[in-house]
Here is the input.
Amino acid sequence: MATAKVYTMDGRELEPIQLNPAVFDVEPNDTLVHEVAVALMNARRQGNAQTKDRSMVSGGGVKPFRQKGTGRARQGSSREPQMKGGGTVFGPQRRGYRQNVAARTKRSALRSVLSARVRDDALLVLDSLALDVPKTKRFAEMMQLISPDHKRTLFVTPAVNKNVMLSSRNLAKIDIKTAAELNALDVLNAHRVVLVRDAVASLEGRLS
Here is the structure.
């Protein structure tokens, strides 16, 4: 049975929590995780680089100079690639890098990386994460208690919490995600994953 340590915001350790083995204790599948991670990274690429080929460059409808008698090589258009201001040959064009990945494949990859974090003792549960007002100092003090090594930490909340977002946005190596939007790449990019207790049930319901 997979378990995780539970802490309060002031650093006190509580009774460990039992995690659903169907989500947090599955066999790793590195090939599947790699496939999903590459697809997620490609989805973030914009693919906006574009150059104009000969058909896109304006002008060039008239022969630039007469065929013979100038001592120059004959030219038919001022927009040919070898001419100054002409079109580019084999330049980059707008394209999409998005790859289609099945939803169940993404869920399987997420289960695999979460299970790996549990086995590496890099996943812990926060009993609650409540801030009355946005306060970066309060959030930094909590981080010092539960993650004193200052490694990149991912917090998974049950829903969007404006005070938590505002309190953490100026702190380096802190990421905040909701249980509904969490993906395998988010977990791979973090050294430590902190699940708010209410987010555990949301994740188990989504992935089991």
Remarks:
- The beta strands are 2-7, 13-19, 123-126, 153-157, 174-178, 192-196.
- Residues 144 and 171 are 12 Å apart (CA to CA).
- The chain has one domain: 2-46+97-207.
